[in-house]
Amino acid sequence: MKTAAPLVVFATGFALIAAIDPGSAQAPKPSQHGSVSQQVAGTSITIEYNRPVARGRELFGALVPYGRVWCPGADNCTTIQISTDVKINGQTLVAGKYSVWAEPQPGKWTLMFNRAQPVFHTKYPQDQDALRVEATPREGAAMETLAFYFPVVDGKRAELVLHWGTVVVPMEIEVP
To answer: Which of 50, 84, 117, 123 could form a disulfide with 43 if both were Cys (CB 3.0 to 4.6 A apart)?
Structure first.
């Protein structure tokens, strides 16, 4: 009988923890949250996003149709925040926080930086674009989970890439 008391206390404690933190009993989301930050010549650049997983699916031209606006992320739209004005692929983006959108094509992508945020990833507010730039995708190593990263940072310049599957979409960033 003495061994039953600790089990009752343990079970009661576990039930209290589950009641206090109901998220602890839920399954994790398939698209986990990610972020990346980089300093470039005193400018802070931060991308916040939820990271979809390929799971063997054909990505561009299938899951993500060519010629249609897509949010590179899941759930709430991906955002980019910049602390000073920068140039992206030669065009000025004013300091602020923006949602990020893309229109993929096999040989050219259009990337949109939109004033609306937060916004759900399927609700593109076309009339609020702050900047549209073109980028030429290149092939890279297979990346199972969508990622944004900075493979090059040099003085006042950096390269930010969107990478999913074997598609790498580079964005040249310059701090004036």
So the answer is: 84
